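## tool: complex_structure
## caller: assistant
## args:
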Amino acid sequence: MKITMAAEYAVRCVLYLAQQGSDVLVNRQEIASQARIPDSFLTKIAQDLARAGIITIKQGAKGGYALHRPPRQVNMLEVVEAIIGEISLNECVTKPAACPASPNCAANLVWQEARRRVRDTLRAADFESLAQAGACVSPFPPPPSPPETRP
Amino acid sequence: MKITMAAEYAVRCVLYLAQQGSDVLVNRQEIASQARIPDSFLTKIAQDLARAGIITIKQGAKGGYALHRPPRQVNMLEVVEAIIGEISLNECVTKPAACPASPNCAANLVWQEARRRVRDTLRAADFESLAQAGACVSPFPPPPSPPETRP
DNA sequence: GATAAATAAGACTAAAAAAATCCTATTTAT
DNA sequence: ATAAATAGGATTTTTTTAGTCTTATTTATC
Ligand code: SF4
Ligand code: SF4
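## result:
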């Protein structure tokens, strides 16, 4: 029930690029060291991101990576799914054939809903906001339930 | 980004028990075959569920498993977390020490929010509803966006 | 109390996935 | 031409998941 390190590294990579500005080319070693990603692993991750149209790779001397679009138009869902594929919490959600009970299963609906909400949350997080946000600015409305701050 | 088979089996086990009624004792083999859980694996899962106070185990001849509380008072979050521990999508959410950036990271807040929403969704799914729901009754309000069923 | 029917508990194994790493090839600025 | 970069794939190591097996204990029943 965790995302993989590769997905986390991908987010860090894109976030770092977003922080440098929209079209800035950054070499891999810099990204790797600044975002604390194993350099050789980053080559793999970058390839997936490039295939997904999120970054552009420039080869050769003075090569490196750059965002392919403005940070505002890249969100965490895309980045994560570029690496790990479509998020789903239980196989029966994306492949109903995986479980004979699926057409008739209330739990399946719960997994679907949970999945939908995770994906919506990640989709709402674009990299312009993330790059600007810095510390403690939440892009989300305050939780409806927890009754503690107002006595 | 998937729950484990063990967690899925746990849900099936509890759901099956809930379907049999509140205090009905069912032997393990029946649960295993009806809920399609490898029998020997179910012994492990049951132990975790028992430790979490979700089921009661009766040993010896004519032994078996039963719900420890009314199905209404058991939800999917408890069951899943009894097996896999506290859900979190990225280690930095539950252990901020895992990443030095965490106090200052906007992505961290996104992961927190996503986690909160998954957990809320699972918490809302109690086993009385699940057992009754049968087929296509969703315990959730219709999604706000997808515009297809009403032409 | 003996017996048989159940589960407990934990060690163990096998398979799969994740997390890298390494090596050879290609691209490109100078 | 050369050196500085990345590409791409094969390989390895580690971790996690999934499941099994064996021995011990509990309990109903005769
Ligand atoms: S029982 Fe329901 S939730 Fe579990 S795998 Fe089958 S369809 Fe999915
Ligand atoms: S960079 Fe942010 S999201 Fe990634 S591990 Fe660190 S705190 Fe978590």
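## assistant note: Residues 4-6, 38, 40-41, 44, 58-63 of chain B lie near DNA strand D (CB under 10 Å from a C1'). Helices of chain B lie at 5-20, 28-34, 39-51, 76-84, 91-94, 106-123, 127-133. Handing back to user.
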